[in-house]
UniProtKB/TrEMBL annotation:
Keyword field: Cell membrane, Ion transport, Membrane, Transmembrane, Transmembrane helix, Transport
Domain of life per record: Bacteria
Topology with respect to the bilayer: Multi-pass membrane protein
Pfam family, one: TrkH
CC per GO annotation: plasma membrane
Species annotation: Microbacterium aurantiacum
Record protein name field: Potassium transporter Trk
UniProt lineage: Bacteria, Bacillati, Actinomycetota, Actinomycetes, Micrococcales
InterPro entries noted in UniProt: Cat_transpt (IPR003445)
Length: 460
């Protein structure tokens, strides 16, 4: 039995990663079902326990209950532990567990871990030395993941603590809520431990800025943190993945803020009653949170339909690869945008910053978008049919689930149980990643030793 288990960790890390996350969901479903985990002292309903376990392990933030009032301190401890486990990432977690079980990382497992450190290596075939970290650096990368998580969350907690005190929270309560908020920010989850969520802190721009910084660090991904840690002042030494991630992330951050500012400035339910400074700041905050953060100061259900569409677009893209964020990832968007630009200019290859992006990476990017769009479409149709709610609200919550964002128009909590189970499945598929999911269900990778005749169908 143990030999079979060890074989699974090294021969198929992708399927092992899916197995690990499914097992964690089952474990935390049991933990959150304990009577001691709720304030009422009664076991949570199965649908709520399952949904919260999936949302916790997949660092999503969508809820069917009010976390602050439904769960006891013990239940919140379970959630805190769960989001930190889930935030480490699918492949990174699988590699660590595989290392513990097999005492060493096999060559194939190292290649998978290397692919987590550089998402350009998320496909089968020969390993291109320029596309992956050296195998000797994999152990260092895994240590960086754990240490950076602890260090960043500690710094965020220290910065958040005074603001919680000034907001009137008791010092002992703030001593617990500060690391809770720090973990929810860095893991891009968005659960709040106090009643009212962030509404009591709506005017505390320092606290909101710290949360935005935590969300940003979590969303750019561990490979980018790793690259910046090594060459923070040497931009020319940054890998192409780091450059594409940072540029696309910043561009979407400002574009999203501008869109929300234009669309919501006259909405009396959101920004209409604010002055210019407050409106601008809240537009940037909303832009950051729709990328994957999940925190909100305004009621999402009060946004105009046009803003919900913009938010859905931002959530579908998500954050960086191998990060705590979800979505199709910003590098996927960047690669496809560069491919379109290269095609428009008639270039024979896709290029960026003096580097050529191979065609297999472009195919992976296209596959990720196709899988993501298919999952969102099927889930939207199913939830809309079950709930009979407006499609705009359903689409927003479904994409929020797929992108593991956590923002909701209010539909998730009020939807029928069947719809909530569909949303939970969407969260799971969105978190483990479309590429990982495809690799996990594939029986084996077969090499083809011959080429078929070429024929060009008409496209466009």
């Amino acid at each position: 039995m143990w030999d079979d288990f060890r074989h699974l960790t090294t021969s198929s890390p992708s399927r092992f990663a899916v197995l690990v996350f499914a097992s964690l969901v089952l474990l935390f479903t049991g933990l959150l079902s304990l009577p001691a985990a709720t304030t009422s002292g009664q076991s949570a309903p199965l649908v709520d326990a399952v949904f919260m376990a999936v949302s916790t392990i997949c660092v999503t933030g969508l809820t069917t209950v009010d976390v602050a009032t439904f769960f006891s301190p013990l239940g919140k401890v379970f959630i805190f532990i769960g989001v930190n486990i889930g935030g480490m990432g699918v492949l990174t977690l699988a590699s660590i567990l595989g290392l513990v079980i097999s005492k060493r990382l096999g060559l194939r497992a190292k290649l998978i871990a290397a692919s987590d450190s550089n998402p350009l290596r998320t496909h089968g075939g020969p390993v291109n030395e320029g596309q992956t970290v050296r195998l000797g650096e994999v152990g260092q990368l895994l240590r960086t993941v754990a240490l950076s998580t602890l260090l960043i969350e500690l710094i965020l907690a220290i910065l958040l603590y005074p603001s919680l005190i000034f907001a009137g929270i008791a010092p002992l309560d703030a001593l617990w809520e500060a690391p809770f908020y720090a973990a929810m920010a860095f893991t891009n989850t968005g659960f709040t431990p106090n009643p009212g969520g962030l509404v009591p802190f709506a005017d505390d721009y320092f606290l909101l800025t710290v949360l935005m910084a935590g969300v940003f660090l979590g969303s750019i991904g561990f490979p980018v943190i790793y690259a910046l840690w090594k060459n923070v002042w040497h931009i020319r030494l940054w890998p192409l993945h780091t450059k594409l991630t940072l540029i696309t992330t910043v561009a979407l951050f400002f574009a999203g803020a501008a869109a929300f500012l234009v669309l919501e400035y006259n909405n009396p339910a959101t920004f209409g009653s604010m002055n210019a400074g407050d409106t601008t700041f809240q537009a940037f905050f909303l832009s950051a949170m729709t990328r994957s953060g999940g925190f909100s100061v305004v009621e999402i259900g009060d946004l105009y339909g046009s803003s919900l569409i913009v938010g859905s677009m931002l959530m579908f893209v998500g954050g960086g690869s191998a990060s705590t964020a979800g979505g199709i990832k910003v590098t996927t968007l960047a690669v496809l945008a560069l491919a379109v630009l290269s095609e428009a200019k008639g270039r024979p290859s896709v290029q960026a910053f003096g580097r050529r992006i191979p065609s297999d990476v472009q195919r992976v990017a296209l596959s990720v978008v196709a899988w993501g769009a298919t999952i969102v479409a099927l889930s939207t149709i199913t939830v809309a049919q079950i709930s009979q709610e407006p499609v705009s609200d359903v689409l927003f919550d479904v994409i929020s689930a797929f992108g593991t964002v956590g923002l909701s128009t209010g539909l998730t909590a009020s939807a029928p149980e069947a719809a909530q189970y569909v949303l939970a499945a969407t969260i799971f598929m969105g978190r483990i990643g479309t590429v990982t999911l495809a690799a996990a269900v594939a029986a084996t990778s077969r090499s083809q030793l011959y080429s078929l005749p070429v024929e060009r169908p008409i496209v466009g």
